Structure formats: structure tokens, C-alpha cells
Amino acid sequence: MELPKSPLARFAVRRGIPILLGAAGGFAYYYFVGCVSGTCPITSNPWISTAYGGLIGFVAAGGLRPVRKAQKNEA
Question: Domain map of the chain by residue range?
């Protein structure tokens, strides 16, 4: 699969897919492991666990890495 040419589309593919996978993983963690009593702040609420999963996917994809600029060689 070839990445799109547009910078915005490339950003969406490179960041969006890991965020969606992380969110799916967060929801799966809530569904299969979650806390029933409500004392666990993350795993007792599906919205919060999905958001945390998406955040982990975002960080795993590189987060807000600064754009590297070309360095000038002054010699």
C-alpha cells in the first residue's frame, strides 16, 4: 500500500490508524478485564478506557514529534 501524497492525508494515515487500534485495544481491555465494582477509575468506564487506549496509540505512533529541518553546514 502506498501512502497518499498529501501531507494531511499522510498524517491521518500514520497517526490515525495507531490511534484507532489503541482505542479498540482500550475498549477490549474494558470489555474483557474491566472493573465491575467501579473502584478502578480507568477500567470501570468504557469511554475513559477507550480514550486512554487511543492516547497510548497516539504516543506509540510518535506523538507530536517536531518536524526536522535541514541543517545548514557552515564551514
Answer: 16-60
